[in-house]
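Morning - zinc ion inputs below, output right after.
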Amino acid sequence: MTTTATFPVTVGSNTINVNVDGVTTLESLCEKIAPFETLLTAPSKCSACDSGNLLPVHRKAGPKGEFDFYEVLCVGCGAKLKIHQKKAGGTYIKREETFEKFTPKEGTADTGTIELDGE
Ligand SMILES: [Zn+2]
């Protein structure tokens, strides 16, 4: 029997409910929720303003939009924490890294505009 499980992913004080299909065993549940480990172990508060109002965000950059950047956005002050991508797949947050506010470089078109993943 195939089951759909609703799994709450808490980022700061916000909870996003993720539906995972194909959950039949504990092993399959662990495999399905493993990609969310980075968010589940992310800091619970912004290191810049102490807000817990955090959201995972995605933006594209580069001349053809070929680069994907994933970050944890502080809705309170706009600072972001980088989510790094492993070459072999998967993501991680560096323990020593802190939330940083975006400062556009002179002469670049990058406005730091973000789009929220999902609806
Ligand atoms: Zn903040």
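Note: The mean pLDDT is 88.

O.
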